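Minutes, project check-in

Agenda point 3 was the complex the collaborators sent over. CS summarized: two entities, 577 residues total, and the question is how they sit relative to each other. Sequences were read into the notes so everyone works from the same version.
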Amino acid sequence: MKDRYLKYALLAPALLVCAATLFYPLLQSLIYSTQDWNLGRSPAPEGFAGLANYAALLADPDFLGSAKVTLLFTLPSVLLTIVVAMAMALLLADNGRLQVNARTLLVIPFAMSPALIGISWRFMLNPEFGVADAVARWFVPGLDAAPILSDPVLAMAALIAVDVWHWAPYFMLTFIGALAALPRDTVDAAQVDGAGKIRIFFEIMLPQLWPVLTIAILLKTIFSLKMLDQVVTMTAGGPGVATDTLPHMIYTTAFRFYDLGYASAMAWLLAIVMMGLAMLYSRFVMGGSK
Amino acid sequence: MTAHVDLSLAAPLTKARRRRGQHGLRNAAIVLITVVWVLPVLWIMATAFKPPSEAAGLALWFAPTLANLFASFDVPYLLGSRLLNSVLVTAGTLAIAIPVSTAAAYAFSRFRFPGGSAAPLVLLATQFLPPVIIVIPLFVVFRNLGMLDTRLALVIANLSFVVPYATWMIKGFFDALPVDMEEAAQIDGASRLMALWSVVVPVAVPGIATAAIFSFVVSWNEFFYALVLTRDHAITLPVALMSARTEQGDAWEIMATMGLFIIAPMLVISRFVQRYFVAGLVSGAVR
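CS then shared the predicted structure for the full assembly.
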């Protein structure tokens, strides 16, 4: 077989899969987003709505509130994950026996199913018998007696903390890789000059780590924006709408209220933001590998 | 580390003592971190073996029981059928995704396509979309075809993220392989396809296996598509967790038992995962 045909033959199955499971659904949800369609009322779209769904969204206080909740989750979760992961990486970068064993153990939470993580933490945060709840109250004696997950602020804090717990080991491993790739000579020279560890980190290592950090921050922002499993299993968006992030609101709009047109419009607005971030990300990744 | 040997004679003793103190502090921090990250997992695993009366409690000592295991496999939790669904859906997904992705990865790695590197990048970018945007049309299609709550529907849905993910990852491994061997094989008269099968694939097996393991992890742990597309028959383990939340209250020991089955394969491969983790990230293939 000629290479010219072979290359398309090799690609064809993957292209077929992607066309059926990605490109077609994407196009279809874009079409739905311009339709009036509640699945509870009608099994097929109920008519063309133009941009009415999008216009309604921008004036919908629930949607804007959910967007705010999403930001309130995303910003701290990204920042804390990166900071905690970097601190862990600095502690665990050496190849001592303790470090190597700790690294192996720390991978386990990352490989855990996000749904299991969410439901497990809901269990452990139960005020009557939850172990995490007991520990939290031991450290913060003045904590309100009410369940942590039924307090709007604490529920969000718990969701963020669990997300950091989930992702920090992963970014730790990437940072350890980046730290190992740093040239030793500048650090050694600074040590000879008597610079302290903290100064060496901020003035010599951090500037060289910026490319990796930028990619990590972009990646974690994308992950935070699409995080959904833990919201469903841990807080279900509650109490009230305190943790009702955009992916969760889209999910409930589509599959609890069956408003497929409105949900699709919401999904596309979110997707546009994420595509922007994804383009930035691929530019950085490509730039780094050239 | 010999670069900063201290040459003054008075300093060494105190300095060594201080360093030992610092190391002690650092080791304590490492242990604390490990405890914070591992203890919750152990707690859940222990809960699976607690009698129901003690599952909702802070007991550190308890008489371990296998009663939860039997209860989980019984009505109404049907862990056996959920487990079978998880195994079949994951196996089906990998059986299709890995060959398809390997072929596509080879094509992207060795041939030029119109648009340059745009096609693999588009593939990567789809991984950053919120899953909910894909699942609404898939739900409608499967509903119209009467395929809701089937394992096949779930396999198809899982392919939407496993194929791009595995393709991008395997492409990274092919990119790192020298082309010399294939060219040598072709000079010997083998066709390109033969060269791929008999020369490239055997060398790339570690890379393909790594991609398969990562694909296994994301597919095994997948929750959202299964939540939307299944009701009863095709429910997989992560969704089955939700069934431990009943009207009569939460059966946490059942939840923990199901969790045990979700975690078990991860424990087996976690050592392997760590070794290839950074390799996986370098190729950008992380969901």
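Noted in discussion: Strands of chain B lie at 245-246, 249-250.
Follow-up: revisit at the next meeting once the mutant set is ready.
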